[in-house]
């Protein structure tokens, strides 16, 4: 019992207990790391609101809001202000612990979990597909779990050991996964960058629409090519070996991809010679409408009834195309009108010109002009000619408006629009009898 009251013996026991805890339970380092994480919460809470306001201002960056994925990403960022600050502070404390030679396993655990959570939130915001979003979440949590238990490096070494040697080239499972991940990220970055540059190019009004589309397509092609080359270089592919691959592609193009390449080259020619451009009103075959967009393989033409035709670029090069707004947006329309022979054609011509001039879309200079085109079987044939400057708004509606005005004007001034007249002659041995049929048509019947 005297040993329990001996101060020297108590000190020895305490030192032994502390040494056992430090060697077996590591209570003190764990408590220190937990305390450091809890202390990091305080500055993270204080800095959360200022950082959240700064991140919310990014939503006013209109140049980037046209991309739906980036718009969703900017909407999520203000909510991630607290975990972003917290993980930065924890990584700073972890770096200090490493320099001081202290244990940092708990700090690394918390940082890995926060990194996985932030990455999942950002990834699911950008990717709208639920399958891909779930895949990103599984991969992120899996990597975080491997990093926590210390199996990440052994798992990488295991995947890298599963390799196949083809000559001097080595293909491993880890290299393939790394190439796929790099390619996906680089393609997304290239696509996003091309959208940004395309919006910037469209704001340069000194460039014609066709040149803007050509520059955007070429820039997108260059960025995607660079992304693919960088992805191949990450797995150690010798880019000089692509010469053989390029030759194989050339042979394939020569035999099986002639039409596809013809459409691609035709699209470049259309953009270079500026024969058609977005917004032009064209007619090719039975298709009439205005050009919505110029693609690398096809041109989208939208008709008045809302139907959108995807016309191969080769057809626009080899076939005859009516471009109503190639060099001038002014378009002359011709509307035939017939009047009865008993009516005054001079007065009818005057009424037709006035009826066409009432329409807002009809130009005053040059104004409407009605001509006498001939003497038909049933009527005096007139033709109303007038000009418009907005063919993209349609022809049928303006022609209908002019004809309705002509109808009203003819009705008010008793100008008759005749019915067709036909004479039927029947011959027989008994003679001929003429029978008048109502409706300005006369039938001569022979008996």
TrEMBL record:
Its record classes its membrane topology as: Multi-pass membrane protein
What InterPro entries does the database record attribute to this sequence? LSM_dom_sf, MS_channel_1st, MS_channel_C, MscS-like_channel, MscS_beta-dom_sf, MscS_channel_2nd, MscS_channel_C_sf, MscS_channel_TM-2
User: Which superkingdom, per the lineage?
Assistant: Bacteria
Location (main, coarse): membrane
| Span of domain Mechanosensitive ion channel MscS C-terminal | 334-417
Q: Which UniProt keywords apply?
A: Cell membrane, Membrane, Transmembrane, Transmembrane helix
The Mechanosensitive ion channel MscS domain is annotated at: 260-326
Instruction: Provide the protein name.
Output: Mechanosensitive ion channel protein MscS
Keyword Transmembrane applies:
yes
Question: Where are its TM segments located?
Answer: 25-47, 80-100, 106-124, 131-152, 172-197, 218-237, 243-272
Task: Give the location in the cell.
Answer: Cell membrane
Record's family?
Belongs to the MscS (TC 1.A.23) family.
Residues in Mechanosensitive ion channel transmembrane helices 2/3 domain copies: 217-258
| UniProt key word Membrane | yes
